Structures are given as C-alpha cells and as structure tokens.
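Form 7-S
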Amino acid sequence: MRRTVLALMLVMVSVLLLSGCKEKVKPGSAEVKREQVSGVSVRTVGTTRVDEYYETSGTVAARTVSTVASKMMGTVTSLKVKEGDKVRTGQMLLTIDDSDVLQKVEGAREGHKEALKALEAAGEQKKLADVTYDRYRKLYDDKALTGQEFDQIETQRKVAEIGLEQARAAVGRAEAGVKEAEAYHGFTRITSPVGGFVTGKNIELGSMAVPGAPLITVEDNSSYRIEINADERLAGKIRPGMEASVFIEALNRAITGKVTEVVPSVDPASRSFMVKIGLNDEGLRNGFYGKVSLPVGKKDVLLLPASSVVEKGELTGVYAVDKASIVSYRLVRVGKRYDDNVEILSGVVPGERVVVEGMEHAVDGGVLAGLK
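Output:
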C-alpha cells in the first residue's frame, strides 16, 4: 500500500514538470505590447543663447526723505497735516507761537522808517552844503573871501557828504534788520521742502518745539530707488545706465529701472558693493521689498516650453522619446523661466527628443504612432 502511494506521487510530479516545460518561453522571445501614442508634437532639444541675469533683493527707498525741524524754540500753535497726508512743496505743516517775533519785526520796521527820515535830512544838508560851497567859491575867486573862510565852507561840505553816506549805510543796516526779523518770523511757519506724503509726526499741538528736533517727516514720492548689494565678482559688469527688472511683491508687478549709481568700494565683511537702481512708479512706497534681476552677460541654456514640463506629485519631468520612438517620463531639474520657456538644468541633453505638445496624450512606455 505504501509503495502504491509513493508511485502515484512520483507520477503526479512528473506530469507537472512536463507541463511546465511545455509552457516555458525562451529568454528574449516574448513580445511586449506597447500603447500607441498619437496627437503629440516632438522637438529635438538644442541650446539657446540668452541673457545671464544676476538676481538679488533689496528695499525700496524714496530718493528724498526730508525730516523737518524747527530753527527756534516755541509752542506749536497749529498742526496742518497728519500721517498719510499728501503735501506739495511749500505747503504749511505747522506754526509756532510768534508773539515775541512779531514785536521784533515791528521794531525793525520802525527803525527802517527812522533811517529813511535821517537819510532824507542828510540829503537836504548835503544840498545846502553844495549851494553854500558854490556861492562862497565865487567870492573866493573874486578875492572877497579869505582862504581860511573858504576852507571852513569846504570842510562843511565834506562833513555833509560823509553824513549822507552814513545815513545811507544806516538805511542799509535797517533794511537788513527788517529782513532778519522777517526771516526769524518765517521760522515760526514750518513748510514742506518737497512734495510727497507725510510719513512721520513727532510733535503734538501745544508741545514745545526745540531747535534741531525732528517734527515731521515728508517722503518725496516723485522718484524712488532700490539699493542692492552685488557680489564682488560682478565688479565692472554693472554700470550706470544699465536696465534692471525689479519685481515688487506688494504690487505684484515688475518695474523697469536703471542703474543710477555704483559704489566702487567693496565691503570686506560681505564681499559685496552697493548698487542703486532708480525707479518711477506711482504705487511705490518707502520700505517695499523687491527682487532685482540685472543682465550681466550671455550664456547657452537648454530651453523647453514651460507647458512641456509635467508635474506628478512632487516629481517634475518631461516625456522623452528615444530612437525607437518609445516615450518615457524623464525626471528633470528646472531653472529660470524665460517668457514662455523654462531652463532645463539636468535630465535632458541636447540632441534628445521631447514631447512639447499634447502631453495629455503621452503615456510612459508608449510608442509613437505618428508625429503631429
């Protein structure tokens, strides 16, 4: 019985082995069925010469930020503006108590009037001295007057002339005194030196203004600039007049500016030098953050249409086509964007073919049925 069971088992094993040998396929003899891919366009990849850009960031600053201070001490009697107000050049910002200064102005004006009257009197004296001199001159020529008497008349004429010059000088001093008093009175009326926006107010109504202490800050909104620190390797490549693209994130738009100033000195700590780029846009404000792109040369890059780059989750790739027209999803690393194209840093080399249109029809492992 035992022998019979063993014999049956051997027969079954033999049958299974024989059947397996009949279904075995020799290596390399199987045909792989690939999905046909159509409706796509393919391009042979090549390099393109483009501008090379240096990219960095900076902070927008108004070209002129004026901090207004008082030249005299006094109580603030009125405040004409507040933060955020738009002002024009010469517009009144605040006033300071001028009661004492007005008295000085009035006194200077009265002194000027007295000087004018004194000048008028000196002029009359000079006229009289000239007439007297002419009359006595004739008498002296006719030998009707002694030399001593004529010398006395001549001296009186000279004294009158000196008196007239002194009176004229006194008028000049009086006029200067009036201008000085009026200028001092002008210090009580604080005006804006530039047009723009009020960005700071450090004084309140009734407070005491102190000479030199900042009162109001006005930001000139007519022109701005962005300051960047460029790498020392770019020394000599960035020059005044070069155009730069500045993207302002707060405005979500790019602004074209021009390099206005390049500081030649390199900071030994950061190994960089300062570059100032002029900007002109109504929406700019002091302190905005901006990304700057400066052209510094040319380079050859591999460009593909941005639409040909396909993202699958966290993977970024393109559909490459080999010599056998087989499509495969190839991982790539992308770089900068140039209009509608994107730079391919790795994953594809010049001379290879890539699907650039109809990516929705491309299938990894498929074969091209025809090119569009």
